[in-house]
Amino acid sequence: MKPARHVHLLKLSVGTDDVEGLTRWQASGRAQGADGLPRHVTRMWPRREEEILAGGSIYWVIKGAIRCRQKILRLDEVIGEDGIRRCAIVLDPEIVRTGQATRRPFQGWRYLRPEDAPADLSSQRDDEDALPSELSAALAEIGVL
After folding, report:
1. pLDDT for position 39
2. Taking residues 94-120, what's their average pLDDT?
């Protein structure tokens, strides 16, 4: 049997100004499950679950550009206080910075093919000061980043 090709998810990080803000949010108890892993709860269950779990990541759009990703570990069923079934996307706590790619606002999440995903930045660049978000987005828009 042929192994499933993987696919990624693309999601807006609403209310986040930078990667550090996403990191702070995910370190809070509200963003973690009982296992201590960060998760993002969404109303819809991905139809391409097998492909996501075959090596997919969630790519976060912050201030109009993809800036980082996290490996998706599993999808858990969550029943809300309202009795509605939801999907908790359970994430690896490591946030990997990526090259930037501009994205227009959208609701929910989108599938992202591996060939369309920006490359990871070198871990050697982690200590560098981040560019201001406006400058970074402008450079990404013209294809420099």
Report:
1. 95
2. 93
- Give the pLDDT confidence of 47-93 residue by residue, as tens digits: 999 999 999 999 999 999 999 999 999 999 999 889 999 999 999 99
Q: Give the count of alpha carbons within 13 A of 57, CB side only.
A: 23
**What's the 3-state SS for the chain?**
CCCCCCCEEEEECCCCCCHHHHHHHHHCHHHECCCCCEEEEECCCCCCHHHHCCCCEEEEEECCEEEEEEEEEEEEEEECCCCCEEEEEEECCCCEEEEEEECCCCCCEEEECHHHCCCECCHHHCCCCCCCHHHHHHHHHCCCC
* Pairing of the two strands 8-12 and 109-112: antiparallel
Per the CB < 8 A criterion, the answer to whether 109 and 10 are in contact is: yes
Q: Is 94 exposed, middle or buried (0-12, 13-18, 19+ CB in 10 A)?
A: exposed
